[in-house]
Design brief:
- The protein is built from twelve helices and two strands.
- By secondary structure, it is mainly α.
- It has one domain.
- Strands 1-2 form a two-stranded antiparallel sheet.
- Helix 2 packs across helix 7, helix 2 crosses helix 8 and helix 4 (112-130) crosses helix 5 (157-179).
């Protein structure tokens, strides 16, 4: 538990004080957000706000995790290192996208097909490596079986697992990216999701199967659950520190650097903690916002130009209905919180009914 507190506290402090310095650096170099012409008119005032802020909470989370291990004299685990690798990889893809936007001074960054290809490649590598490195109990970071609130008996096989991981990572990273349209919205929602992974990791550690036990006894066969809770706490702390500067009116924007990385982290935790299908309620707000884009796009095409929403993603629809930005953010945070609470309830419900 000490590691969890150290990781979260250090990441929070580093992001809280480090973000201010990053704002000065980015502003001084003119690395400001480019606002799309087809977005809400009220967003024009955000033009030039320092972007690529994801750099700070990615760094904060990694340092918080490492410092926690240094202070406690413990060893970093394979599962956590794989998630860090995935986050850094997707963060770099987002950084390239952000860099192209600010250097070209337009809203077109990395071409969509290249971004998707990079996401799929990194996710596939994460899935493959997650099936390697068995520990003394022959547990690998990622299971060959599908998991809901815990591991099921549905065998996916190597190809099936990798394909499923690719879908998860791409869905989560693009879901967070779509949600990152209002000041603090995506940051606040991801904090709740990371905190849920802290609770899940701690619980799974406390109910871990003993050597030779089988999962049907009610225990969890999950590799490194407590260390994953430490890393999740570091990400939560980093995002909390960043949120101080990211709330409306935002002094800095996470950009694709941050949104793609956060989505990758969420998918990574869901797969390594064996709660893959639970990602739907734990990331409920991201699912809702992504669905709004899908519905808008499909209906627009089949109806010959008609729209379901005034604008997609969904938060822009409510802006155009006259809601203040801060009102949309807080109400969507409430939705995210209720969704996460529902996911946690489903996770613990399996113990209540036994």
């Amino acid at each position: 538990m000490t590691r969890i507190l150290i990781a979260g506290a250090f990441a929070l402090a580093f992001a809280l004080f480090g973000t201010k310095g990053l704002i000065h650096i980015l502003a001084g170099r003119g690395y400001g957000q480019i606002i799309r012409d087809d977005g809400p008119s009220t967003h024009k005032t955000k033009h030039g706000t320092p972007t690529m802020g994801g750099i700070i909470f990615i760094t904060a989370a990694i340092l918080g995790y490492v410092v926690a291990h240094i202070f406690t004299g413990t060893t970093m685990t394979t599962s956590a290192v794989l998630i860090i690798g995935l986050v850094v990889g997707l963060g770099f893809v987002g950084f390239l996208d952000d860099w192209l936007k600010v250097s070209r001074q337009n809203s077109r960054g990395l071409k969509g097909r290249y971004k998707l290809l990079a996401q799929a490649t990194l996710a596939g590598a994460f899935g493959y490596l997650g099936l390697q490195f068995p520990d003394s109990n022959q547990l690998t970071p990622i299971s060959l079986y599908l998991s809901g609130v815990s591991e099921t008996t549905l065998y996916l096989g190597t190809f099936g697992v990798i394909l499923f991981i690719v879908i998860m990572v791409m869905s989560a990273s693009n879901g967070v990216n779509l949600t990152d349209g209002l000041d603090g919205l995506a940051t606040g929602a991801t904090i709740m999701t990371f905190l849920s992974f802290v609770l899940i990791g701690v619980w799974e550690f406390g109910q871990s199967c003993q050597d030779g036990a089988i999962a049907t006894t009610g225990c969890y066969q999950v590799r490194d659950p407590l260390d994953l809770a430490v890393l999740a706490a570091a990400f939560a702390g980093g995002c909390i520190g960043f949120l101080w500067w990211n709330t409306a009116p935002a002094k800095i924007i996470m950009g694709d650097t941050g949104s793609l990385a956060l989505g990758a982290a969420i998918a990574g935790f869901a797969s390594t903690l064996r709660v893959e299908l639970l990602l739907v309620p734990l990331g409920g707000l991201f699912v809702i916002i992504t669905l709004s884009v899908v519905i808008q796009t499909v209906y627009f095409k089949i109806s010959g130009g008609k729209r379901v929403f005034r604008m997609a993603p969904l938060h822009h629809h409510f802006e155009l209905k006259g809601w203040e930005e801060i009102t949309v953010v807080i109400r969507f945070w409430i939705i995210a919180g209720l969704s996460v609470a529902g996911g946690i309830g489903l996770f613990y419900a399996q113990w209540v009914v036994k």
